Amino acid sequence: MEQSATTSLLIAIVTDDVSDKALDIADRSGISGATMVPASGIGSPPIKTFFGLTFQSAMTLMFWIADTEVANRTALQLRDELNLDSPRQGLALTLPVDRLYGLNINQTQTPPTPP
């Protein structure tokens, strides 16, 4: 079923150690079915440790599809509960979805009429 722009993609990039907590936050908000991808990134400047070695935490890239209001509220909860405003903790963002095929998240919406 084709979805309208009232649907959003919620993306969170978080350290591996809080990815389970991010899933719990989304679940409490009513969002389930996350797609998770291992990720790494290069910060500027990189975190340096002793002996000149560079350290970067393992990250997880997480995706959810949800109603825009729920996705925005969940992004704020992720920010607050995971302390995302602190440096190098991760980020959360939402993007509007113009078209969505293969997933019906709104059971009450009527299908579009063919052209």
Brief overview, please?
The chain has 115 residues and is an alpha+beta fold.
Give a quick set of tags describing it:
115 residues; four-stranded antiparallel sheet; 2 helices; elongated
The proportion of strand residues reads 25-35%
Structure classification: alpha+beta
Order of strands in the sheet with most strands: 2-5-1-6
- The 3D shape can be described as elongated
Described by strand count, sense and barrel closure, the largest sheet is:
4 strands, antiparallel
Number of helices: 2
Model regions low in confidence, pLDDT < 50 over at least 5 residues: 107-111
Structure, explained:
By secondary structure, the chain is an alpha+beta fold. The chain contains 2 helices and 6 strands, in the order βαββββαβ. The two termini are 15 Å apart. Mean pLDDT is 84; it is low at 107-111.
Topology overview:
Layout: E1 7-15, H1 19-28, E2 35-39, E3 47-48, E4 54-55, E5 59-67, H2 68-81, E6 90-97
Antiparallel strand pairs: 1-5, 1-6, 2-5, 3-4
